[in-house]
């Protein structure tokens, strides 16, 4: 069991790195050089919403300092627009610019092409559901562990 557990942890890490490679490859294929793969995922996770950096950190599970840095770069590259909250002038919200929305559309097309290619493949929808549930259970196990240790 220990070897399986450790192998699973390593696989999760490799899958994340490989997925970042997929996004990087698509950016290169599209000739997009002013944004990196992590920043692209941040944009995609914002989508059509308007969020604070704190909300983005919480939803995307990014490290706070990395999100702040990346948001700054995305604003400088015209992918994001920053606006002060109408209700709380201390709070800054971000939303996608037209340039950011266009890139998200391209990434969404990439995801759809992956889904199309996966249909009928050995990794079908049912297997993905089972994998998802197993990973959610592992996430809950780790979250419960962190919470129980934090209480002391």
Descriptive key words:
152 residues, mainly alpha, Arc Repressor Mutant, subunit A, three-stranded antiparallel sheet, 6 helices, 3 strands, 70% helix, globular
Explain what this protein looks like in three dimensions.
The longest helix has 28 residues, at 2-29. The protein has a single domain (2-119), classed as Winged helix-like DNA-binding domain superfamily/Winged helix DNA-binding domain (Arc Repressor Mutant, subunit A, Orthogonal Bundle). The chain contains six helices and three strands. With 152 residues, the protein is mainly alpha-helical. The radius of gyration is 18 Å and the shape is globular. The protein has a three-stranded antiparallel β-sheet with strand order 1-3-2. Helix 1 packs across helix 2 (37-46), helix 2 (37-46) packs across helix 4 (64-76) and helix 3 (53-60) packs across helix 4 (64-76). Helix content is 70%, strand content 8%.
């Amino acid at each position: 069991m220990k070897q399986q557990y450790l192998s699973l942890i390593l696989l999760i890490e490799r899958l994340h790195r490989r997925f970042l490679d997929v996004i990087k490859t698509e950016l290169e294929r599209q000739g997009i050089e002013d944004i990196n793969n992590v920043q692209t995922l941040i944009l995609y996770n914002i989508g059509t919403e308007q969020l604070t950096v704190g909300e983005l950190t919480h939803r995307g599970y990014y490290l706070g300092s990395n999100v702040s840095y990346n948001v700054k770069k995305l604003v400088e590259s015209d992918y994001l627009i920053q606006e002060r909250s109408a209700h709380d002038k201390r709070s800054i919200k971000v939303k996608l610019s037209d340039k950011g929305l266009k890139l998200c559309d391209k990434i969404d097309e990439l995801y759809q092409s992956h889904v199309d290619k996966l249909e009928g493949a050995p990794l079908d929808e049912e297997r993905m559901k089972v994998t998802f549930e197993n990973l959610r259970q592992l996430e809950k196990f780790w979250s419960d562990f962190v919470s129980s240790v934090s209480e002391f």
